[in-house]
Design a protein that fits this description.
It is built from 19 helices and 8 strands. With 446 residues, the chain is of the alpha/beta class. It has 3 domains: 96 residues, Up-down Bundle (Four Helix Bundle (Hemerythrin (Met), subunit A)), CATH 1.20.120; 185 residues, 3-Layer(aba) Sandwich (Rossmann fold); 127 residues, Signal recognition particle, SRP54 subunit, M-domain (434 Repressor (Amino-terminal Domain)), CATH 1.10.260. An 8-stranded mixed sheet has the order 3-2-4-1-5-6-7-8, sandwiched between helices. It is elongated, with a radius of gyration of 32 Å. The C terminus is likely disordered. Guanosine-5'-triphosphate (GTP) binds next to helix 5.
Length: 446
């Protein structure tokens, strides 16, 4: 399911590969697929629209990387745009000058606030800190008990309403005093779940925020949240000063579109991800992995990186020019071999060359490659540049130097000669021959 986008784009790219520049219509075609993939990942429609517009603008202004096809370039732009929204690296909790650091936990009913509070406390405790939990959900009868049980499991103290005032602000204020008095490093405040239309609860959240002046106010959001994500984010933004997001239930099969929606609307980093029901199931959020999850682009990006790394197009053009003039030398042959080797099995790469099938001994070239390299390296620069110099005695010297036989050297010189002849005849035509270095990606690659 996650790789549906790369699959679909593959089809488009196969059609595009033969063409040169990507025109507007083709950009549209790619963007349509990206739009569908985002919607399938449950990104809010509003965010999808804004995101696709952003990508279109970037694509229009982008300089095409010389070794990427335009289609690959688009995918790269999409990935960069995703990283822009989601952030590049994980962002940790803000430090404070004066402990305790207060962390206010907010979110919709059932989003995972209480669990996340306890998980966070357990995580901080593991880091050698001394967190205190405050049970400020006084709406749901079992809420305090739930947090107390989780606190016990984590070995973290829980501050709760003992006077029975049923006032969230009072509990939070008392917890803060307790944390200060007892030298706690962090105070994590769990709050009541709310439907975002619940104005009374929203006001209460605002009042708690005012009372404890948090360093962090984290919005807890279920990864399954779909189109509603924008409303949720906007209503919490309107009430409190959000500093980040905790995305929960990422262990389910949600595509994670909520991550993009939340990050886009709040403009705040997603700091943690909940990945299970256990106390240890909280991880720092990694934006790059989420980008792959949303678009199923992991493989695509790997391919693009490969293509970027493998070929130097300027070098390839120079080589093509040499071929046209038929002054291709053993030196060039060696440098071509180095480039081709990066792309995969030589026999496979050669077979994709125009006329490649006719290349002599193409099949066992892979096995021969180290030998061929050794022989070329045993030639003097003069010999490499002017193979005609390689007479009988020079062949014996090259064989000895490369640990091969004279027959081997004879064979390679003959093959090289054949290749040169073939190239000359091909370039004699319309001069349209393409060298391995000029190739983009093998068919089936993308
Ligand atoms: N699989 C999975 N389940 C989670 C995760 N986080 C929370 N849950 C489960 O989701 C349910 C609700 O979690 P709570 O922490 O009680 O949610 P809440 O936001 O405090 O709920 P209210 O206080 O009622 O608003 C519980 O059954 C949790 O075990 C997670 O990351 N993965
Ligand atoms: Mg709760």
């Amino acid at each position: 399911m996650f790789d549906s986008l790369s699959g679909r784009l593959d089809d488009i790219f196969t059609r595009l590969r033969s063409r040169g520049r990507l025109d507007e219509k083709q950009v549209d075609e790619v963007l349509r697929e990206i739009r569908l993939a985002l919607l399938e990942a449950d990104v809010s429609l509003k965010v999808v629209k804004a995101f696709v517009t952003d990508v279109r603008e970037r694509a229009a202004g982008a300089e095409i990387h010389k070794s990427l096809t335009p289609a690959q370039q688009i995918i790269k732009i999409v990935n960069l745009a995703l990283v822009d929204v989601l952030g590049e690296k994980n962002v940790g909790l803000r430090p404070v000058d004066m402990p305790p650091r207060v962390i206010l936990i907010a979110g919709l009913q059932g989003s995972g606030k209480t669990t996340a509070s306890a998980k966070l406390a357990a995580l901080l405790k593991k880091q050698g800190r001394k967190p205190l939990l405050a049970a400020c959900d006084l709406r749901r009868p079992a809420a305090i008990r739930q947090l107390q049980l989780l606190g016990e499991q984590a070995g973290v103290e829980v501050s709760a309403d003992v006077s029975g005032t049923n006032d969230a602000v009072a509990v939070a204020t008392a917890a803060l005093k307790h944390a200060r008095d007892e030298g706690f490093t962090d105070l994590i405040v769990d709050t009541a779940g709310r439907m975002h239309v619940d104005h009374e609860l929203m006001a209460e959240l605002g009042a708690v925020e005012k009372a404890v002046d948090p360093a962090e106010t984290l919005l807890v959001c279920d990864a399954m949240t779909g189109q509603d994500a924008v409303n949720v984010a906007e209503s919490f933004l309107a009430e409190v000063d959000l500093t980040g997001v905790i995305l929960t239930k990422l262990d389910g099969d949600a595509r994670g579109g909520a991550a993009l929606s939340m990050a886009y609307v709040t403009q705040r980093p997603i700091k943690f991800a909940g990945v299970g029901e256990k106390l240890t199931d909280l991880e720092p959020f990694h934006p790059d992995r989420m980008a792959s999850r949303i678009l199923g682009m992991g493989d695509v990006m790997t391919l693009i990186e490969k293509a970027e790394g493998a070929f130097d197009e300027a070098e390839a053009i120079k080589m093509q020019e040499k071929l046209r003039k038929a002054d291709f030398t053993f030196e060039d042959f060696l440098s071509q071999l180095q480039q081709i080797k990066k792309m995969g099995p030589l026999s496979q790469v050669l077979s994709m060359l125009p006329g490649g099938a006719k290349l002599p001994a193409g099949d066992d070239m892979d096995a021969q490659l180290p030998k061929v390299e050794a022989m070329i390296r045993s030639m003097t620069p003069d010999e490499r540049n002017d193979p005609k110099l390689i007479n009988g005695s020079r062949r014996r010297r090259i064989a000895t130097g490369s640990g091969t036989s004279v027959q081997d050297v004879n064979k390679i010189v003959k093959q090289f000669d054949q290749v040169r002849k073939m190239m000359r005849s091909m370039s004699g035509g319309k001069g349209k021959m393409r060298l391995p270095g000029g190739m983009k990606l093998p068919p089936g690659g993308m």
